[in-house]
Structures are given as structure tokens and as C-alpha cells.
Specification:
359 residues, alpha+beta, Alpha-Beta Plaits, Sulfite Reductase Hemoprotein, domain 1, five-stranded antiparallel β-sheet, five-stranded mixed β-sheet, 14 strands, 29% helix, globular
Length: 359
């Protein structure tokens, strides 16, 4: 018999009801944890009971067959419980070391690398980009794949870096991939104002909605033709929001679209507190599918970070300690005037002196 509305309208379940039994029994009583190896963490309770977290990287798009395989592993080794992390890893909690190792072996056999724990490269997050979104300036999926292939072993190695490294990729400046709070961020950029096709705008688009959609008020009704719009190029920031409302305002430009590179962000409030990523490379041409220039630049940044940062020091903290001038020199990145922070509301963070000197 189907459930009534009153039976279904109970809101979200309490999070404790979703915890694995071993976590419910020891809630608030965990004594310490230790990293067994990449992807496996041992947790010890005050009662002496143990639990083992097993983490593995998975695709961002999952078929029904893959979900069934993962659920079968949870039934076999973890009493039917599993969870997805904020960076879209799959994580299981096993009750003993033997089950954890066997589970890790099963995951590897299915093609899911076990890792993502400790001072490693965390799972790369990215937006849906051109697979679903029409505002993207770059294909974030192929970028993430190219970076994964280059740094695959750093995901599995829990001591790959001085501290964890998080990479995020977003197809445009709207940053659905939380790129502003990542150690390294790749953001797709449009570099030209949209092109208005009057014939299309007049037939299928709402001029008032277009005017309201622009965050910088760069769109206004067209003089002499109020059924269409015109764009003030000096105010336009190429965000592409207008294109999402009207297909007659084309934002894509294959000759000029590309990606930018940002570093130094983090969401953690430890030590220096949260940090926003800063622009270091304003533009790189798209090079699908391998993105060799982008991957090579990220490789240099990670190598100098690995060699020069202190243990436990996030990338943004390391750069703030040594100075941005030295970072640009070590990473062999050409400094551009576009990297200067001139945002008028960033009084607490931007360089207020005149002592920024490149060697």
C-alpha cells in the first residue's frame, strides 16, 4: 500500500540515524586516529574499539551499474553503509584491518584508486562544464582528466607534499567548482563581450530580464530598437549570465576563450585562516585533450611547493611567508599587470605599499 503524504512529509532524517553502527556506538568517544597507508585511516575509540576508513577516487559521473557495485561492497564489508565525501570520493568504514585491506583490494580491482588521505593531492573537483552548462569557456572535464593522469601517484601517496593539496577546475568565472578556495584553481575565461544577434533577441528573449540579469549593468535596451539590447563593453566582465537567458547573446569565442590559473586558496580556518586564491596566469590557450602548457605550469608550481614549503604548511601560507615576488621567480611564471589586486573592497588583503618589485 503506498504511503500517505503525512507519512512521507517528515523532513530529512537525523544525521545520527545514517551513521554506521561502529560510529554510533563511539560517537564523541574517539581517542585518536592514524594513517595506515594511502587511503586507509585507523580510528581508535576510548573503549578500544577500532574502525577503518577506506577512501577511493571515483568518476564524477556514475552509471547505475557502478552504484550497484559500490553498494555491494558496502553490504559485504561495511554492514551496508557508505558515504561520499565533499570532493566526491567514496568512503567506507570497516570494522577491522583485514576487512579494510580486502575492501581496498576490491576497489583497486574495479579500477578505483585507493588514496586521498594525508598530505596528498586530494580528489580534483570540477564543474559540469560543456557536458551540461552552456556558459563554460573551457572544458573542465578534460582539464581534470589531464591533471589526474599527470598526478595520479600523488593522489595515492599520503606523504606526497608538505600538506594537502586541493585542485579545482571551473569552466567559467561563475566558479561552480568552488575554485576560489583551492590551493590551485583552473578557471575558464571569456575575453570578449557577447555578440548580440538582434533577430534572435527580438523573437525569443525578454529585454527586461536581460537588463536585470547583468551584475555590472552593462546591458541596456538598444537605442532605436527597444526590442533588442546593446552591451557596454567597458562594464562587461564576460560572465556569460546573459547568454543563459537568451541564446541571441553569444558569449563563446573559440579564438579568444581559454583558461586562467589561480593559487593559494583554502577553506580551512587553521593557522592563517581561510584564504582566497590569487591570479598568477591570466590566460592560456585551450589545448585539448592534454592541456600540456597548463599541466606543465601546475607541475612546476607543485614541485617548488614540495621542495620549499615547511611540513604542515598549505600552499597559500607558504607563498605569504616567502612573498609573491619569490613565488613567481621560483615557479618561473611571468608576472603580469593583470595579477595586481585592484579590487576596491579588498583593503584587508591587497598589497597597499609600493614595494612590489620583481627581480
Amino acid at each position: 500500500m503506498p504511503l500517505s503524504f503525512d507519512e512521507l512529509d517528515f523532513g530529512p532524517p537525523h544525521y545520527r540515524d545514517m551513521l554506521p553502527p561502529v560510529c554510533r556506538r563511539n560517537y564523541g568517544k574517539w581517542k585518536y586516529h592514524e594513517h595506515v597507508r594511502g587511503g586507509i585511516i585507523r580510528h581508535v575509540s576510548e573503549s578500544g574499539e577500532e574502525a577503518y576508513s577506506v577512501r577511493a577516487g571515483i568518476p564524477k559521473y556514475l552509471s547505475a551499474d557502478t552504484v550497484i557495485e559500490l553498494c555491494e561492497l558496502a553490504e559485504r564489508y561495511c554492514e551496508g553503509y557508505l558515504k561520499f565525501t565533499s570532493r566526491h570520493n567514496i568512503e567506507f568504514i570497516a570494522g577491522d584491518r583485514e576487512s579494510a585491506e580486502r575492501l581496498a583490494g576490491e576497489l583497486e580491482r574495479l579500477g578505483f584508486p585507493v588514496g586521498g588521505t594525508g598530505r596528498c593531492l586530494k580528489a580534483i573537483i570540477h564543474c559540469v562544464a560543456m557536458s551540461h552548462c552552456h556558459m563554460a569557456a573551457a572544458d573542465s572535464l578534460s582539464i581534470a582528466k589531464a591533471l589526474y593522469e599527470e598526478f595520479y601517484e600523488d593522489f595515492r601517496n599520503p606523504e606526497a607534499f608538505p600538506e594537502r593539496v586541493k585542485i579545482a577546475v571551473s569552466g567559467c568565472l561563475n566558479m561552480c567548482g568552488a575554485t576560489h578556495a583551492s590551493d590551485i584553481a583552473v578557471i575558464g575565461v571569456h575575453r570578449r563581450p557577447p555578440v548580440v544577434e538582434d533577430a534572435v533577441v527580438e523573437k525569443v528573449c525578454s529585454v527586461p530580464e536581460l537588463v536585470k540579469s547583468c551584475p555590472t549593468y552593462a546591458i541596456k535596451p538598444k537605442r532605436g530598437n527597444p526590442r533588442s539590447v546593446e552591451i557596454d563593453e567597458e562594464k562587461c566582465v564576460y560572465c556569460g549570465i546573459c547568454y543563459s537567458l537568451c541564446e541571441g547573446i553569444r558569449i563563446h569565442d573559440p579564438e579568444n576563450d581559454g583558461v586562467s590559473l589561480w593559487v593559494g586558496g583554502k577553506a580551512s580556518n587553521t593557522r592563517a585562516g581561510p584564504l582566497f586564491a590569487r591570479l598568477v596566469v591570466p590566460y592560456m590557450k585551450p589545448e585539448q585533450p592534454r592541456w600540456s602548457t597548463l599541466v606543465g605550469t601546475v607541475r612546476r608550481i607543485l614541485e617548488v611547493y614540495r621542495e620549499n614549503a615547511r611540513r604542515g604548511e598549505r600552499m597559500g601560507e607558504w607563498i605569504e611567508r616567502i612573498g609573491w615576488e619569490r613565488f613567481f621567480r621560483l615557479a618561473e611564471i611571468e608576472f603580469s599587470e593583470k595579477c595586481i589586486d585592484d579590487w576596491i573592497f579588498s583593503v584587508e588583503t591587497f598589497r597597499r605599499g609600493t614595494n612590489f618589485k620583481m627581480p
